[in-house]
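Design request, tokens follow.
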């Protein structure tokens, strides 16, 4: 029997590659994406286009309360005082995302939740480390109800890229025929990626190091 999985899909190359990896592995996939105030429409469109191209159902969850650090500090200048906040940081983001993914996994009878996190993510974000995901999996399963006919009702967090870099993912994306022209990595909205933000620089560096042509345009500096 094909195992069902919920794949988190942001619209960037990491989650898009994880989605295609999961499809190739034979999982029965439903993709899950989150809409929140600081998320740019171009990234939302990317998630929809990638899911449509892969012919998988996309669940869109609305999170109107979720704000990034930049927006929070505009209202509360004392928030995060003395803390070096990375660009795009959202407090407890992965805790929120994966708790809701566990909810959807349970109601959709999925055995796995798949994310595209990389080894470099854990260097700037404490909620993207292998230890975090291990402990979170235990926490999620502590909330589960056992079935009368099947006591093995655990949900597994599957992070296939935790030991890989974005350069590795750029190479893998080509091998898996990921539609890179549909992906979006920029923190800003527009017809083209800005080419200036951290996400754009990381993407450009990854493709350059991988020797792969990026099919998604960046604004020429």
């Amino acid at each position: 029997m094909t195992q069902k999985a919920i794949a988190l899909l942001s619209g960037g190359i990491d989650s898009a590659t994880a989605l295609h990896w999961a499809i190739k592995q034979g999982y029965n996939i439903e993709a899950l994406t989150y809409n929140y105030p600081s998320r740019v429409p171009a990234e939302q469109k990317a998630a929809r286009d990638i899911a449509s191209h892969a012919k998988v159902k996309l669940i869109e969850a609305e999170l109107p309360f979720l704000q990034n650090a930049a927006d929070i500090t505009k209202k509360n200048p004392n928030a995060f005082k003395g803390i070096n906040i990375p660009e795009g940081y959202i407090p407890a983001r992965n805790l929120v995302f994966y708790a809701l993914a566990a909810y959807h996994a349970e109601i959709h009878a999925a055995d796995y939740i798949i994310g595209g996190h990389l080894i470099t993510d854990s260097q700037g974000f404490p909620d993207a480390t292998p230890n975090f995901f291990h402990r979170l999996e235990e926490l999620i399963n502590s909330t589960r109800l056992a079935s009368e006919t099947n006591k093995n009702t655990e949900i597994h967090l599957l992070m296939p890229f935790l030991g890989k870099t974005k350069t590795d993912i750029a190479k893998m994306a080509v091998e898996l025929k990921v539609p890179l022209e549909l992906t979006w990595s920029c923190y800003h909205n527009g017809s083209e990626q800005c080419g200036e933000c951290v996400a754009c620089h990381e993407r450009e560096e990854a493709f350059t190091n991988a020797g792969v042509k990026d099919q998604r345009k960046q604004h020429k500096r």
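Comment from the thread starter after seeing the answer: thanks! The radius of gyration is 17 Å.
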